[in-house]
Amino acid sequence: MKSTGPDPVNLLLLPFICLSVFHHLPVVSSKTEVPSFPDEALPTKSGYLTVNSTTGSAIFYAFYEAQEPISQLSRTPLLIWLQGGPGCSSMVGNFIELGPWRVNFHKAKSDPLVLESNSGSWNRIFGLLFLDNPIGAGFSIASTPEEIPRDQHSVAKHLYAAITSFIEQDPSFKFRPIYITGESYAGKYVPAIGYYTVQKNAQSPVSERVNLAGVAIGNGLTDPLIQVGTHAVNAYFSGLIDEMQKSELEKAQWEAVKLTKARNWTEAANARTRVLDLLGEMTGLATLYDFTRKEPYKTELVTQFLQNKEVKRALGVNETLVFEDCSEIVGDALHEDVMKSVKYMVEFLVKKTKVLLYQGHFDLRDGVVSTEAWMKTMKWEGIHEFLMTERKVWKENGLLAGYVRKAGNLSQVVVLGAGHLVPTDQALNSQAMIEDWVLERRLFGPQQGEDLSSEFRGCL
């Protein structure tokens, strides 16, 4: 989702901060059918995972078990999804991206909202856990605004508490391989919780370790200092701005870079916002998240759906909680974090576990050019081999889907026909990508050069 603070495309879901203290937080597996939320669309379980037992602050979760597991559930991979923002609700990812059901209009915009089955869901053969992160986002609870994280260490600490609490609910989860995934500002969250988990594992007995197997970042904001300097050249060579505009945009970019190097975090974040605003004005695009779109992504449908009291009750959420598209409180809390880099965390993780970086080809904010710029500067002994490795053509059902490059623990995927919200735009292809990466097959397997047909995706 959004890479920083509120913006006119309305891609943040930074919600209500509950000022009450919740000491008894329910774990819900509701089977009460409601008109807007049919029984078959309910999560396997949903509820709250406490991150501070003293104040009652907690992260809301929705878990969907694998629809067609290809191994025993105790060994079935578990994907964790984190939305961007900072502070977007992962219910966006759930209900318009990669969850098993998507919200939409019945036929026309005047019709009631309905849920439609998503054949490209990421829980086809894996378990899928959505976490509203950080506290204060989505249906998560922050006892006070002051408790909302201001940095990635605090974000990771809360996420670790939530993840370990979820695992402890069921002993069968203990040995399931865990893959932490997310997009946009989760380009920081994902490395942060991965980094924190590896460090905690090193200090913990085997019985208490989290079985982290990999991390995946889609269209991520990970190294803002480098990424903010790519917008002008990207837009220029895409034919969206002319040379004079490119020069003007480069001046704005340099201001953001200068302020970042001076560690003036607040003004640096403001300067980046001005760069993106200027790019939007120059191009006249409906959204920078996908330069082919005539209108922004319809994230407001998720908000409308989750404001329904019956839906809230079905999810185990207090119906008085207000679900909003944007929360300035959460955005402001992490404002000084926006231009801080977590590249060093990725450099650390790629030495310990496998890493996937994927980008939608149409994204002008955190897309291919933006990601490749910082990847080239990674301090990792395998980066030269990675950069020298041939990028492979990726096809699904005989049709071009994108490109894959893999060397060692690092994989990069360019997804054609997609913008910032890759699973929304290319549901089946994104499903194929994540399944093949987790299971290390086809272009992610030992025979990287062999373009196996997609009918084998259901086999190990």
TrEMBL record:
SUPFAM superfamilies: alpha/beta-Hydrolases. One of its GO terms (cellular component) is extracellular region. Coiled coil: none annotated. GO terms for biological process: proteolysis. The keyword Acetylation does not apply. It comes from the Eukaryota. Residues 1-30 form the signal peptide. One of its GO terms (molecular function) is serine-type carboxypeptidase activity. Its main location: secreted. InterPro entries: AB_hydrolase_fold (IPR029058), Peptidase_S10 (IPR001563), Ser_caboxypep_his_AS (IPR033124), Ser_caboxypep_ser_AS (IPR018202). Its EC number is 3.4.16.-. Keywords: Carboxypeptidase, Glycoprotein, Hydrolase, Protease, Secreted, Signal. It is found in: Secreted. It is an enzyme of class 3 (hydrolase). Pfam families: Peptidase_S10. PROSITE patterns: CARBOXYPEPT_SER_HIS, CARBOXYPEPT_SER_SER. Belongs to the peptidase S10 family. This is Carboxypeptidase.
